[in-house]
């Protein structure tokens, strides 16, 4: 079993297995475990285990994928071009030869190479998260009444605004300062930063996200340009009414001084790739619409004034920071983080850019690779589309039967149809009702499952509700919605059967 996990790219430290390992620790190595004991040990992870055993993970041949990533890493490691950022003293002291690559898929398959445990300062890579927080708090219209959404075509700290007197986008300094002014403005700086740090811990599913005070002090001491940007925006009445400029800048410097490692940043990127759902905790950190807007801006504005060229050659949403970090999102597939402190003239990591170029030379990851049918030399490491779709339907039905609402949510975010059917034309709702899975029934109905979908024998979930042994399901469905009751009565008139006439009311 352990060899299967490793082959599939699942770490033995995967938090989804923590409870199982704890249960297993009650037995000695010499104990023979029965089937029922095995089921008890892994009772909370059965959907996950089925996912692994059936090789339904997003990158099925993970051994080959890892070998190719390691080959790219070794090739890029030979590059020593670029210079470490020197305008912030603390960053200038970092070893320029540090190099790490971490990858996390939306199924939690991981690769970590090089200095992946070394702490690094996130710098500008904090900006997408702050933009997401501002969107979740205020909505798209409010946020973009203070921030534009166009590439600036200029340096990230250029003293310029758009034609409306607003910062060009939230991923350059002026826009990021503006985004900070929108995040919990009525709280103290300490509480605002706690709010941001808590979100980082959720999006990385890690407690090892901290704060580098020396970098923060260096940021504050070398902040003339950021102060100039803030005063320039205030002069143009760009800030929300009542904004405290000094506190906003302090908050911005704190966010840039968050400290973590590439392992965590790869999970962050995977959460973005997964529509805001963390692949390990299954917690919905951000709404999918928030992620869509964030990735759109990362695709056009995330790499400073190299953004257009990066989008053209690499074709993926990304965000860089002057500490030498870059994280890249392959939507619905995986997140990547590369860290190497030597920077090019744009302020992006030289090795990270080279790694991304090699990545998209090797794999069909560019957003528009699917349009070029003659690219026979590129590899698609993902599941074949037809096999993937069939596998996900099977997984959704299995999760519904087991009452695994977290996994149901994960599959729905990935685009699986909630009313998809198995070979007997039974939907996930059919199976959840038959197995008496109350929470799954409730979740599926509230998210659009069809109570009147017929299986091959002509039975719908409402028929299963009537015959269910679960009084909780019967009572909840009966009281759920007048609209469903009306639909059921209409159906009863058409069928003319006594059983159907009472429908949901009798159920």
Task: Give your account of this protein's structure.
The protein is α+β, with helices and mostly antiparallel strands and about 500 residues long. The protein folds into three domains: about 50 residues, no CATH class; about 300 residues, 3-Layer(aba) Sandwich (Beta-lactamase), CATH 3.40.710; about 120 residues, Ankyrin repeat-containing domain (Serine Threonine Protein Phosphatase 5, Tetratricopeptide repeat, Alpha Horseshoe), CATH 1.25.40. About 50% of the residues lie in helices and about 5% in strands. The strands form three sheets. It has a five-stranded antiparallel sheet. It has a three-stranded antiparallel sheet with strand order 4-6-5. Strand 8 and strand 9 form a beta hairpin. The C terminus is likely disordered.
Helix and strand layout, with pairings?
Blueprint: H1 2-8, H2 18-24, H3 35-41, H4 46-53, H5 62-77, E1 83-84, H6 89-92, E2 100-105, E3 110-114, E4 120-121, H7 127-138, H8 140-143, H9 173-182, H10 189-204, E5 210-211, H11 213-221, H12 224-235, H13 245-256, E6 258-260, H14 262-273, H15 288-301, H16 307-313, E7 318-320, E8 325-330, E9 334-339, E10 342-343, H17 350-362, H18 385-402, H19 405-413, H20 428-434, H21 438-446, H22 461-467, H23 471-480, H24 482-495, H25 498-506
Helix pairs in contact: 5-17, 7-9, 7-15, 9-12, 9-13, 10-13, 11-13, 18-19, 18-20, 20-21, 22-25, 24-25
